[in-house]
Amino acid sequence: MPAIRKAVFPVAGLGTRFLPATKAMPKELLPIIDKPIIQYAVEEAIDAGIETLIFVTGRNKRAIEDHFDANLELEWALLEKGKQEARDMIRNIVPSRVECLFVRQPEQLGLGHAVLCARRAVGDEPFAVLLADDLMHQDSGTPTGDLIEAYSRTGKSALCVAEVAASEVNKYGIVSPRSALSDNTWDVAGLVEKPTQEAAPSQLASFGRYVFAPEVFDILEKTQPGAGNEIQLADAIDVLAARGDVVANRLKGIRYDCGDKLGYVKAVVHAALRSDPIGSELDMFLREFGYQRSEAA
Ligand code: UTP
Fold this sequence. Notes:
Elements: E1 6-10, E2 31-32, E3 35-36, H1 37-47, E4 52-57, H2 62-68, H3 72-80, H4 84-91, E5 99-104, H5 111-116, H6 119-122, E6 127-130, E7 134-137, H7 143-154, E8 157-163, E9 173-180, E10 185-193, E11 204-212, H8 215-222, H9 233-242, E12 246-250, E13 254-257, H10 261-273, H11 278-296
Parallel strand pairs: 1-4, 1-6, 4-5, 8-12
Antiparallel strand pairs: 2-3, 6-11, 7-13, 8-11, 9-10, 9-11, 10-12
Helix pairs in contact: 3-4, 8-9
Bound molecules: uridine 5'-triphosphate.
């Protein structure tokens, strides 16, 4: 089985739900306290053994390139101020053995089209896709590492899934499982985008981590615009699944939808509560705040 060495990060979306913050700034650089959302996904990919990061960018995304590039002026300025630790931190965001490539999506034709734009950079090998909006936290390993493992075990493209409430199925791509391979892995028959509660084949929602065999590119080439007149990645996954070439792997941790305001705020609070030294004071603040709110009600 070929090793998975490349990861694609589609970051060409407009981020309309975060306007005006995203008028001039990419939403992927919105911080979770002091680290941009995209850096979490990049760190996850590197932890999973990825060696080439391929960013599919669009307008207003130059700052993402700058974030992952060296900034020698800033490094010098930090050294002069005696801030060695901060210098090392910004210098080592991406280790030197990891390469960053930037590919442009000329028009926002959909997530499937964004992945297709990475075809030449990926070549004829399996690869991972990470949507930075889906911020994942798990205590051991990474969602991408788990999908790479599922791909190596089965030889099939792999999706990251988790159960959602029946009332929420209309917000996600929902997996139609063909059979359970274990408690946490399913063979997938299809993927239904945002079904009604009645039409949903399960409550297993697909989140923003994938490992694909390179065949997905041939399917994407032929995929016609679907929902929202966009070339949908979900439609290509559905075709792969109908051929019996997709498995789903249950997410072991928590996922926050940082493309949505509430999900983003939850991710910030979660990270803040876990970080030193602000976590314990924030905990006290939230308890106090909760108490006052219920008093006032
Ligand atoms: P979203 O559906 O969240 O769209 O894209 P968006 O434009 O980023 O955000 P809103 O809805 O306007 O607020 C899901 C993922 O697909 C990427 C986005 O960057 C995001 O990672 N994407 C989407 C592209 O790279 N290109 C596209 O044409 C569409």
